[in-house]
Design brief:
Elements: H1 3-12, H2 18-74, E1 83-88, H3 94-101, H4 114-122, E2 127-135, E3 139-146, E4 151-154, E5 168-171, E6 177-178, E7 192-194, H5 210-223, E8 233-237, E9 244-248, E10 253-256, H6 261-278, E11 281-286, E12 295-298, H7 301-309, H8 326-334, H9 347-350, H10 354-370
Parallel strand pairs: 1-3, 4-7, 7-8, 10-11
Antiparallel strand pairs: 2-3, 4-5, 5-6, 8-9, 9-10, 11-12
Length: 371
């Protein structure tokens, strides 16, 4: 064996046995695990300090911004409410609206909760739409669109003056009951819904009676159709649970079922057209049945008045005939009066009638002819 081969074998020989290699590996693992733990601890502490720093900065920023906002806006006297502008298209009073909204002058304009004020005003029975606007630096504008009443409603079946009755309420299109403190003259011409006894009537309540809801729907349909000028409703009796008895301005009485109002109005249109062609007035009609509808007609009021003033047959006028006593006729024929008889008391008694004069003249001519 050469020297070079012996040298290569010496270099390839292991310097440690298996046990020594295992011990060296264990020591290396322990050193590495200790370093990894220290590295993880340092990383966690770094993240924690960063979080604390960020939280401190946020807290400081929040406190600073809040203090600045308080000094610049909330505690600034320039942003106190000095003007409250209220606009309404109805009869709501300013004091009533401010009391309901719980809004006062002198409050900070940024501390006013606009949504809360709008919800409070929306609870008013007269309020239909509410808009609240903040105008810097010191003004709050409130605009209210009030509900328009479309009818009177009462639980009574006979009422003469809804203005003076405590049992009568104004009702809007959506069925909200109202009691107006200031009654307008235009409310006198509103239709009257009678006999709502299925539920109690209170201000601000929404009526849920099927009969009352059908009556409101009927009013809406007649106003939006061509029947508005020809069929103007004055009363709707809903005391019956299966039909509505409607009376219009011409005192025509029409009975409606609680369903299919549009179809019934079309049938009513046919009868009104027939009345226009025949110069008659509708007196009663029952629209509940779909066929063989009971209907009665009457003469127009104008024709009845005209017949009374100018009758078709001219009455015969008799002329007055003078009446005289027998003695006056005898005196007229004799041309005088008996001795001792009292003188005529009147000119009418002493003056002969025109017919007697003509007879005397004929007799005189006849005697002259005979002579």
């Amino acid at each position: 064996m050469s020297s070079s081969q012996r040298h290569s074998q010496a270099r390839n020989r292991r310097l440690s046995n298996v046990r020594q290699r295992r011990q060296q590996h264990l020591l290396d693992v322990k050193v590495r695990s200790r370093r990894a733990t220290q590295h993880q601890v340092r990383s966690a502490m770094g993240v924690l300090w960063k979080m604390v720093l960020v939280a401190g900065l946020c807290t400081g920023g929040y406190v600073g911004v809040r203090e600045a906002a308080a000094r610049l806006f909330f505690a600034n006297p320039d942003y106190q409410v000095k003007t409250i502008e209220l606009q309404t298209d109805g009869t709501l009073q300013r004091e009533e609206m401010l009391k309901t909204a719980d809004l006062h002058e002198g409050e900070n304009i940024f501390s006013v909760n606009l949504a809360q004020i709008r919800d409070r005003l929306q609870q008013l029975p007269q309020a239909d739409e509410v808009e609240v606007v903040r105008k810097l630096p010191n003004e709050i504008d409130i605009r209210i669109v009030e509900r328009r009443p479309v009818a009177w409603i009462t639980s009574e079946t006979d009422i003469t003056d809804p203005f003076a009755s405590d049992a009568a309420f104004l009702v809007g299109r959506r069925g909200v009951l109202m009691k107006q403190k200031k009654l307008l003259p235009e409310y006198l011409g509103l239709p009257l819904i009678l006999g709502c006894k299925t539920e109690s009537l209170e201000q601000g309540k929404v009526i849920e009676s099927p009969e009352a809801q059908t009556a409101l729907e009927l009013l809406r349909l007649t106003e939006s159709s061509l029947l508005q000028t020809r069929f103007q409703i004055r009363e709707i009796d809903i005391s019956k649970s299966y039909y509505l008895l409607v009376t219009d301005k011409n005192h025509s009485r029409v009975m409606f079922a609680l369903n299919d109002l549009e179809d019934q109005l079309r049938r009513l249109q046919v009868f009104l057209d027939y009345c226009d062609k025949t110069k008659q007035e509708l007196e009663t009609v029952n629209l509940v049945p779909q066929r063989n509808i009971p209907v009665t007609f009457t003469s127009p009021a104008a024709s009845v008045i005209n017949d009374t003033i100018a009758p078709a047959v001219e009455p015969r006028i008799m002329k007055a005939i003078p009446v005289h006593t027998l003695e006056a006729r005898v005196r007229q024929d004799s041309g005088g009066h008996e001795p001792g008889a009292p003188a005529p008391k009147s000119r009418a008694a002493s003056t002969p009638a025109p017919k007697a004069i003509r007879n005397q003249q004929k007799k005189a001519h006849k005697n002259n002819g005979e002579q």
